[in-house]
Design brief:
Strand content: 15-25%
Radius of gyration: 25 Å
Oligomer: single chain
CATH class of the largest domain: Alpha Beta
Structural class: alpha+beta
CATH architecture of the largest domain: 3-Layer(aba) Sandwich
Strand order of the largest sheet: 6-7-5-8
Number of strands: 8
Order of helices and strands: HHHEHEHEEHEHEEHEH
Number of helices: 9
Number of domains: 2
CATH topology of the largest domain: Rossmann fold
Length: 222
């Protein structure tokens, strides 16, 4: 699927998929036109002129066109460029559905949240060179730090001695945060230090860097 939308405005989505299937030599009885239109949410627009479709619908039609010959690998180039939040979520769901059906998806994107949301394995290309190619979880583990944010049962009037070595920051009367490197410190140690100081933990959350942070870290080092 190319980044730019291309279509014939004088044909319907149904006709365009039939033509595309014909170009790939798919026999008429083996064509999946209705199935693909339903898959991308265009069943009701099957017989409408393509020029009348919204920009988001046209992008979904592009995905359907790329699927007419049942490819084992689908290459998507910036599939959600210029689309709104709701449509992006729909496109992501379409990609997940295709993947569950056994289709391998190769996604190229500058939208790193999209890659983090959808991909199992990620490669980062910098100046035309692949600088890292590994499983998403391994890539995210490259981040130097994480943060634990605590909401305690009472105001923090004194930092527990055992917790001071972690350089905690008081965020609010009952709020405390600790930044740490997962490779060097176990989160359980920090939690134990808070509890050892006589505080009860009412709630806690962890904040981890994103794929964008990894990208900046990797490219700045290169």
């Amino acid at each position: 699927m190319p980044q730019e939308i291309n279509y014939d405005p004088f044909f319907t989505p149904e006709k365009l998929l039939d033509i595309q299937a014909g170009l790939y030599g798919v026999p008429a009885k083996e064509r999946r036109t209705a199935e693909l239109l339903a898959l991308v949410g265009l069943k009701d627009q099957a017989k409408s002129y393509t020029r009348a479709l919204s920009g988001g619908m046209k992008r979904r039609l592009m995905v359907a066109k790329a699927m007419v010959h049942s490819p084992p690998i689908l290459v998507l180039d910036e599939p959600t460029a210029g689309v709104d939040v709701e449509l992006r979520q729909q496109m992501w769901q379409n990609v997940r559905d295709l993947n569950r059906r056994g289709v391998t998806i190769l996604l190229t994107t500058h939208y790193l949240q999209e890659a983090e949301e959808l991909c199992d394995r990620i490669a980062i290309i910098d100046h035309g060179r692949i600088i890292v190619d590994e499983a998403k979880e391994d890539m995210l583990s490259r981040l130097d730090s994480k943060e634990i944010v605590f909401r305690l049962d009472r105001p923090v009037d004194l930092i527990p001695e055992a917790l001071r070595r972690f350089n905690p920051q008081i965020l609010s009367p009952n709020g405390l945060s600790v930044s740490y490197c997962p490779r060097d410190i176990d989160a359980g140690q920090i939690i134990a230090a808070v509890q050892g100081g006589g505080y009860q933990i009412a709630d806690l959350s962890t904040v981890q860097g994103s794929l964008e942070d990894v990208f900046l870290q990797m490219t700045s080092n290169g």
